[in-house]
Structures
1.
Amino acid sequence: MNGSDFIFLKISQINQPQYSLSDQFTLWKRENELYQVFRILKKLGQILN
């Protein structure tokens, strides 16, 4: 997270550890991606609880 930009890291440990980066979400686009970021954070909160 860097102010108005968000990138998420996904880690998978099936067989061999692997990771991938999400698309970059930004608040500066015309279609404001803040709601997508909130949706991802809400899903992460549900998984961690």
2.
Amino acid sequence: MAGNDFTTQAASGLLTGGPAGGDPVLKGKGVFVPELWTAQLLQDLEDNLILGSAEITNRNYEGEFRREGDRIRIPHFVDTVTDKGLVKAYGEIGDKDHAALEYIPMTVGKGSSFHIEIDALHQLQTKGGIDLMSELVRQRGRQAAVTMDKILAQTITAAVAGKDLNGAETMPADVSTLPALHGKIDSVKHSALDTESIGVYDYVVAMLENLDLKNAPDSRYLFISPRLRSLLLRDPKFIDAAHFGGGAVMPSGVLGTILGIPVRVSNTLGAARAEANTLVKGRRHDAFKNIDMFMGSTSATSLVIPFAQMEAYKPERSFTDAIKSRVIYDAKVIRPEQLLVATGVEEEIRKHNQAATEKNRTVAVKEAAPTK
């Protein structure tokens, strides 16, 4: 049977997309190359990351860590230039303004590691076409992605409380023990009148207004929970925006953008959870269960993965091939004012609409009552 051991599997092209002879890294010798698998590790992470994807998180400072170690300082300018006003003939201009910088520290203090092993006899007894080591490496990439997404979710959750998780190895039980962040992520509420019925769409509008007031960049995104998507698809304000002077927002039922903002649905948001099923391999964690939706720009949060290592070896006392790997990473909210979250949305909508209905009913009764 072809591919009975790890070396021939790697050389067969099952993991690299082509035969060993055509691969400049393997050089046609059928030899396992750790660097090749490290590249696959990073690619697997990129494919599986949600919060850590390029659409959501920037990787601007990764190169700095590769050069400078596990801590950098991110500079930003302080506004120091003032308008001196009109200088009349023979008048004197005001004092000189000088450049001033403040620094935001960022460290790397988190990581993942994996240790996997396959016996050649196990591979031999496996149905042809199934590569056990390739599957374990794929699972490793998915699990690392889940962990990184969880770290990013915890970093954002801590920033809602004005705290900084960057540099800490784990999320503490009491978030108040973390150091203060240079700002705080706003939690947005609707701004509708007390007689107006509201829906999820009103929260989206309120979030956009908040970011516009802060001059946030236009490269924005919106994440919502599956439950909020269901509510949004039944929201009249979203389904038909003709009263805003346009056509139907969603004529085909496809949810892609709202007011020009790309929308993604993540089952890590919200408290709803599916029943356990061993055949369902979802990217799940509970770090975002208290947040129903969040909006921001790609410059708000940074993720760095400055180091990834993978080594293959043959354990001395067994007939197996093994791989050990580790990835070092961390995240930080750089611009907290450019991130927004909304919590308890469905319950708030229910309470508000119930109160609005009651108030409108009271007003209608009063207006219908005969005047004396």
3.
Amino acid sequence: MKQLKILILFLWAMNLSVNAQCGDLEIFFDTADEWVAEGDYQKALDLLEKYKDVSKYQNCPQMKVLKSKILGLAMQKADEWVADGEYQKALDLLIEYRDEPDMKNCPEMKVLKSKITIVEGLIGNNNNTNNNTNNNTNNNTNNNTNNNTNNNTNNTLSTNSGNGLKCKSTNPIIVNLVNNMVKVDGGTFTMGATKAHDMDAVDNEAPEHQVTLSDFYIGKYEVTQEEWEAVMGENPSDFKGKPDSNKRPVEQVSWDDCQDFIKKLNDLTGLNFRLPTEAEWEYAARGGTKSNHYKYAGSNTLSSVVWYGGNSGRSTHPVGKKAPNELGLYDMSGNVDEWCQDWYHSNYYKNSPSSNPCNTVTTSYRVRRGGSWGDSARYCRVSNRDNNSPGGRNSNLGLRLAL
């Protein structure tokens, strides 16, 4: 009996020691999260990598969380490079983590592999664009002056964005904006929410109802500060003047401002951009025909897809740093709220059309969707509805384009 007691005490002491060691990982997580809130993904990644292979932590229950955090940070770093056009660096990083044996069972691996496919597609599109440019240059050199004029005009009118859209602008920022429009296949989905399915649902989200939409395009990202400035010649955002401001979403723009932006953008591109309808926005946020019926756009895990009041550091962040949703769209939940085309009415769902609805009945407010860097989790749900006066501006309100 005495030996048994000694053994129990020994195991208890060992357990205390292991728990104390494992507690260190929680401290590292907190430090890494602070750096992420500041936008320093590489520093956070380096910290967690440092402890991934330390032998004394290998049996800690937190090790699974650590590896998941590492994969998440690697994907955020890759997204940062993609936003800067450094596709190959992003691809190399993602492949490095895909091929690590001890990462293969992480739940984030599926998302990482889908990102690899997306980046490979971007590299292919970029190579095609370069080849087209070289061919055009050679053709222009060989043709006479009149043919050069004609060819240059035709090339401008048919700049290939890789998604079937043609843009007459040669401004690389605007061409990239067009290139980032995502084709969404139409379909039928359940719009809205009730407390029977979501305890956070409120009255203006009811009733749940079936909506059928035609095909449309929507922006992969929220409109950024550099895109707004390329079109409008000025930047109204509160969160400007930082090293990464160009890639942050534009804010402090009213619904009326957005209409001016869209008109000028259409003149520059020859396309017919607009704001998404509220139904299109929710359908795209839910993942369209690929929907996994998540609470937030792309996940039921808030922090993996959303910049909100709990992790944003009270600021916007560069677009595309969180994981995308099923359609490859970023920041549909969080970062900044997004204007929609519709006029807002709290009871609109009770009598709205079932096919391609858009509320055109004038009220005092326009619809805004998605939640923002300053909101709590409930406001970032895909079914949450909000509104603002058309002339109102705010540092948590921006836009995403549709076609």
